[in-house]
Amino acid sequence: MTGHALRIGLTGGIGSGKSAAAARFAGHGVTIIDTDAIAHELTAPGGAALPALRAAFGDTVIAGDGGLDRVRMRARVFADPAERARLEAILHPMIAAESLRRCAVDTSPYVVVDIPLLAETGHWRERCDRVCVVDCPRETQIARVAERNGHSRAEIEAIVAAQASREARLAIADDIIDNSGPLDVLHAQVDVLHERYSALAKAAVTRANAEKVRPEARFH
């Protein structure tokens, strides 16, 4: 285990129910570190990422309030993979550094790091002790997003296609929450995982404390 608390990476595609799972973990008193929220902080007026973004993309991506013009930037990177890679090269290390800083100072037995692009970025896999994937069928995703956001099917399918595939996410999962059914079924699965993660965190602390009281073992 790295850092103070056990780190659980939580991910899932759009419409999977990842936010509902995070909210249930939070209801158990678990700290949720939301990488999307950190990204918004970094790109808000006065945010730490703005100088690098302005240098890389110019003033056209800066809104009137001094923050990132997210609509313009989204259109720019969606149309050009090279531009997207350039944006990610700036933001992802800063998001990771702030997320890890918050993990290090947290006093909870375990923390949940909400990472929408965990499967896409790769580097988060080794920074988490376990990866939990919220999963549901593709058609369920599309129906949920259509109901929630009012997007057309074509728009939603384009978003889904731009994300990692369902198979890619499941391939990196240590734990899977099946959210193809009603919300109370998701809640029950989160409750079971909370008990499991709490036990794992307790066991990790016990091991760490045992190592501390046997320093002479290093010299034999």
Characterize the structure shown.
It is a single chain. The protein is 56% helix and 11% strand. It has 220 residues and is an alpha/beta fold. The protein folds into two domains: 1-30 and 108-220, Rossmann fold; 44-106, no CATH class. It has a five-stranded parallel sheet with strand order 2-3-1-4-5, sandwiched between helices. The longest helix is centred in the last third of the chain and has 30 residues, at 183-212.
CATH structural architecture of the largest domain = 3-Layer(aba) Sandwich
What does the overall shape look like? globular
Which parts are unreliable, with pLDDT below 50 for 5 consecutive residues or more? none
Report the oligomer: single chain
Whole-angstrom Rg: 19 Å
Name of the CATH class of the largest domain: Alpha Beta
CATH topology of the largest domain: Rossmann fold
CATH evolutionary superfamily of the largest domain: P-loop containing nucleotide triphosphate hydrolases
Mind describing the biggest β-sheet?
Answer: 5 strands, parallel
Sequence of secondary-structure elements: EHEHHHHEHEHHHEH
The neighbouring-strand order within the major sheet is: 2-3-1-4-5
Measured as a percent range, the helix fraction is 55-70%
**Count of helix runs:** 10
What portion of the residues fall into strands of 2 or more residues? 5-15%
